[in-house]
Amino acid sequence: MAHNDSAPRGGHGTQQDHGAAGGHAAAHDAHAHPTWKQYRWVALILTLITVVEVWIYYIPSFVATKLFVPSLLIMSAVKFAIVVLFYMHLKYDARLFRALFTGPLIIAVVTLISLLFLFGHLAVRLGS
Amino acid sequence: MSASPALDHIEAGPHGHHYTTTGLDSRKIAVWAFIGSECMLFASLISTYLIYKGRSVVGPFPHEPCSPPVCATALKPILNIPVTSASTFVLLMSSLAMVLALAAVENRNLPKYTLGDRILGSSKLWLWMTCILGATFLGFQSYEFTSFVHEGLSIRTNLFGSSFFTLTGFHGAHVTVGVIWLGTLLAIDYKRGLEPGDAINVDIAALYWHFVDVVWIAIFTLVYLIK
């Protein structure tokens, strides 16, 4: 498998696949995908983060601290980013795809946070 | 076909790709735009859940026990974290199987020297794995929903029940669509074999499947773990 581990995953988008005639258009779509090894590492990291998330859920002293919710949110965001960047290949794909995904995602997150402020689940304390 | 031969490859590539003037496959642009819109759909459902969180007047409650007079009988916290953790692991592994299925289709024509190469290069195996793991996740969800109903929580019981079943039910429906989609790819693979030229179709299905996974990553933390 060693030859596969080091081989870039060109797939449907490589210039060679399309030949010279389709080269121009294909070049824009060309992207290298992660290798088997990277996929395995990504799966391992995702599993480890999930184990840590569940583990801290069962530590009452940690749940009672102010670190509990932020740490869960950070771990969840890291998992989210890893899947999107590596499994969905956004790290390797065209900028337009990134824009099509991150644009609505930013709108969604801002709307979610705004609604939580609006309904009193989040609050900013001004002054003393 | 275009009147100009120079533009022919932009409209349809050698593998039938529908290239646009951006040089990108139009179907892939469409699926990313669809995923973007789905982000906003799930954000609205998650917002609704979070806004109603802790505002249920009657039990059962997600993380807190419920005792009379709020509940007719004493009830334990209803969320079953060990079962949901297992289903989360299953969905994460299904994403791994999906990327391996896509890689197997993309690299179908590469020589396979070892047993490991043949296993990694079997698109049928990885598509089957993804389907089975997706169906297992749905099985976990059915078990969870059934046990909740038996414990007295339905979509009409309280605000938690309404927002919880709507959010997780929508997600489960998306997983179901994904499993059916993967089933059609498997059928094509058995009928004529998925070639590297079909990789774009597998890629689009994979993007949808991974999106369903990332939505669950958010739901697992926001609904199940944060008390």
- Compute the number of strand runs of chain A: 0
Please, what is the oligomeric state?
heterodimer
- State Rg of chain B: 22 Å
Which runs of chain A of at least 5 residues are low in confidence (pLDDT < 50)? 1-30
Q: What is the domain tally of chain A?
A: 3
How many separate domains make up the residues of chain B?
1
- Unreliable runs of chain B: 1-11
Strand and helix map with partners:
The complex is a heterodimer of chains A (128) and B (227).
Chain A: H1 2-6, H2 15-18, H3 23-29, H4 36-57, H5 60-63, H6 68-87, H7 95-118
Chain B: H1 5-11, H2 26-52, H3 81-106, H4 115-120, H5 123-150, H6 159-191, H7 199-225
Helix pairs in contact in B: 2-6, 2-7, 3-5, 3-7, 5-6, 6-7
Describe the structure.
The complex is a heterodimer of chains A (128) and B (227). With 128 residues, chain A is an all-alpha fold. In chain A, 31% of the residues are buried. Chain A folds into 3 domains: 1-33, no CATH class; 34-91; 94-128. In chain A, α4 (36-57) packs antiparallel against α6. Chain A is built from 7 helices and no strands. Chain B is mostly helical and 227 residues long. Chain B has one domain (38-225): Cytochrome c oxidase, subunit III, four-helix bundle (Four Helix Bundle (Hemerythrin (Met), subunit A)). In chain B, 68% of the residues lie in helices and 0% in strands. Chain B contains 7 helices and no strands. Chain B has helices at residues 5-11, 26-52, 81-106, 115-120, 123-150, 159-191, 199-225. In chain B, α3 runs antiparallel to α5 (123-150) and α5 (123-150) packs antiparallel against α6. Residues 1-11 of chain B have low confidence and may be disordered. Classes of the chains: A mainly alpha (128), B mainly alpha (227). Chains A and B meet through α3, α4, α6 and α7 of A and α1, α2, α3, α4 and α7 of B.
